[in-house]
Design goal:
The chain has 387 residues and is of the alpha+beta class. Among the domains are: 7-96 and 309-366, no CATH class; 193-289, no CATH class. Helices cover 37% and strands 19% of the residues. It has helices at residues 7-12, 17-27, 38-50, 56-64, 81-90, 94-111, 175-179, 199-207, 280-288, 291-303, 314-337, 344-354, 361-366; strands at residues 123-133, 142-144, 147-157, 162-170, 189-191, 211-214, 222-228, 236-246, 249-250, 255-260, 269-273. Strands 1, 2, 3, 4, 5, 6, 7, 8, 9, 10 and 11 form an 11-stranded mixed β-sheet that branches. β10 and β11 (269-273) form a beta hairpin. α2 (17-27) runs antiparallel to α6 (94-111), α3 crosses α4 and α3 (38-50) crosses α11 (314-337). The longest helix has 24 residues, at 314-337.
């Protein structure tokens, strides 16, 4: 007879306990621990995301209600609210960043060579999103006079639409400051919007062999070096080789300016890129793919807990956001492994009710509306001889 642990326990098997313990030792996360382990903290915060818990009371109460099933998770007992709050405030958030990186590598193996375009270059998108906070509670994240905010800077890998890199800062930090910290492999195509305009950074990317597609300023100064013939029966209006800058200070590298006529849009879309060997239509499709990072941010905010926080310190906020990104990778992994087309919202909604159900995860994932198999008790119930 086949026996299974709970679905939550099977999800936790995606994380190697050996690698997790190495990360704990690397960051010295348990140097002041008194019984409550980092694994227990991780399980509790992941339950906060997948179980849709909105407070410390719901996290600890939800785990305490499943006390007998926690042994399968590697947790002896449910944590107390004060214990979990103290751990989130003082234990390093870098531990969760390391766990995120390990899980990302595993998800990439599942994606394989799945691509939307013919070219072999890796395609990445860069963008950021603001997370509104209460300025009186999160006084360290003051964004304006009467508003607080944190900012999530992220790199999205379009092969599977997986979050590859993230940086959590205060809301005032500019996007370009975070972008300058990134390192890309030669041959990578990076897509970003007007928030990352910096001619020196463009020159640096070109010298490193990194390609980019973006939009220039409305008042951008440039000189046309060569006019290319746009493809026929396409929405490409013009295609030019240009050199950016004022007459007294021109950029060293030549760039390409493409004007695209978008349906249901009055003004044409102007694109700037250093991709000289790609067709203009392909470049316009590459920039259109940038919208996927906006879709990712919307899904992250609507399905997981990054709007309401269970701690007010900067460390607790970063731990919860990193746990949300880990949970998003888990959901993406399940989507990739499933044989049916799950939407992210339906997967989160149904998974929340199945976390502590004892059935095979992959069977449920492919047949979610089938009842679980009836387990044989292995013995007959004694009949009472009542007259």
């Amino acid at each position: 007879m086949n026996r299974f642990s709970s679905i939550f326990s099977q999800l936790l098997q995606l994380f190697s306990r050996l690698e997790f313990q190495r990360a704990v030792e690397q960051h010295r996360a348990e140097r002041h621990a008194r019984g409550f382990t980092c694994w227990g903290q991780f399980v509790a915060m992941l339950f906060c995301q997948l179980g849709q818990a909105q407070s410390l009371r719901e996290i600890c109460g939800g785990l305490a209600g499943c006390e007998g099933k926690l042994k399968h998770l590697g947790v002896p007992e449910a944590p107390k609210r004060s214990t979990l709050a103290y751990a989130n405030e003082h234990r390093p958030w870098e531990l969760f960043q390391t766990v995120f990186g390990s899980l990302f590598q595993r998800c990439q193996e599942v994606v394989g060579t799945q691509k939307k375009f013919r070219f072999r270059n890796p395609l990445l998108s860069i963008d950021s999103t603001l997370i509104d906070l209460c300025s009186s509670v999160f006084d360290w994240a003051l964004y304006s006079r009467d508003k607080g905010a944190a900012k999530l800077h992220m790199v999205l890998d379009h092969r599977g639409y997986l979050p590859k890199f993230a940086l959590i800062t205060e809301g005032k930090v500019q996007d370009l400051i975070a972008a300058r910290l990134l390192q890309f492999e030669p041959g990578t195509i990076v897509v970003f919007d007007k928030g990352y305009i910096d001619y020196k950074w463009y020159e640096k990317l070109t010298c490193q062999g990194v390609f980019f597609v973006t939009r220039p300023r409305r008042d951008a100064k440039y000189r046309v070096v060569e006019t290319l013939k746009p493809p026929q029966k396409r929405n490409i209006v013009r295609d030019e080789i240009v050199r950016l800058g004022e007459p007294h200070h021109r950029q060293k590298s030549l760039l390409r300016l493409i004007e695209v006529q978008v349906p249901d849009r009055e003004e044409p879309l102007i694109l700037l890129t250093n991709l000289m060997h790609f067709g203009a239509t392909t470049i316009s499709q590459i920039y259109k793919e940038r919208w996927q990072i906006e879709v990712f941010f919307r899904s992250l905010k609507q399905t997981l807990r990054i709007k309401t926080f269970v701690g007010t310190s900067a460390n607790a906020l970063k731990i919860q956001i990193w746990t949300a990104l880990i949970a998003m990778l888990v959901l993406k992994y399940l989507q990739l492994r499933a044989s049916i087309g799950w939407s992210l919202s339906n997967l989160v909604a149904l998974l929340r009710h199945q976390l502590f159900v004892y059935r095979d995860l992959m069977t449920w994932l492919n047949q979610p509306f089938e009842p679980p198999p009836i387990l044989s008790m292995g013995m007959k119930q004694l009949s009472l001889g009542l007259v």
